[in-house]
Amino acid sequence: NCGAEVAFLINELPIFSWRDDGVSYGPVLGGGKIGLRQMAPLVGEYANLVVRRASREGE
Prior knowledge:
- The protein is an all-beta fold.
- The protein has strands at residues 5-10, 13-19.
- It has a two-stranded antiparallel ribbon.
- Strand 1 (5-10) and strand 2 form a beta hairpin.
- The chain is globular.
- The two termini are 14 Å apart.
């Protein structure tokens, strides 16, 4: 599934990744918005955030 994976890296170190199988939670969404949520008392700062267009392997 194109666009069915999310990965978080800090300085090239993989922190978290998840792949949506398109079945467990319904079809993979084709577009939309991104949101970042943090729970109290966490204070988070984001810099150099990169969001890339999904592409199929070989494109």
